[in-house]
Amino acid sequence: MKIRVRDVVAGGIQLEFVVKPVDIGLETEEFLDPDKPLKVAVDLQKFDDSLIAQADVAYVREDHCARCLKHLSREQTARYELDFALSPGDEWIDLGGRIREEMIMGDAPRRLCREDCRGICPDCGADLNTEPCECEAPHDGAKKKKRSQ
Prior knowledge:
The protein has 149 residues and is mainly beta. It has one helix at residues 95-105; strands spanning 2-4, 13-19, 38-47, 50-64, 71-85, 92-94. Residues 140-149 have low confidence and may be disordered.
């Protein structure tokens, strides 16, 4: 998503793009399906020796719950404020590269399927959201004993 600096006229411009993750170097990021496009709407303003971009990026985030490992797929929109310092002779800015950086740096390391997710029992492996635990002792963080069968 390279943008020609001279195309940003007085009063700014608004642009929209639909790109695949591979188009901006996000093909290996686990939080994106490489076949699902990103929709980018950007408002560009030029001020003396800089360009200011306000970009809204809509995408489908693929993930797993940090507690129960349930697959999560959620539509998200992120807003990024980007500032490009211009030097004399600059003809292009790479909006895609900056969006890529922002998406990677802003990626939250832990997601939950729901706020009150109970997770998986570390001993018997039961998904505590959907099935009873097979352990004898209650879940208090202490080591549990298996029930004899």
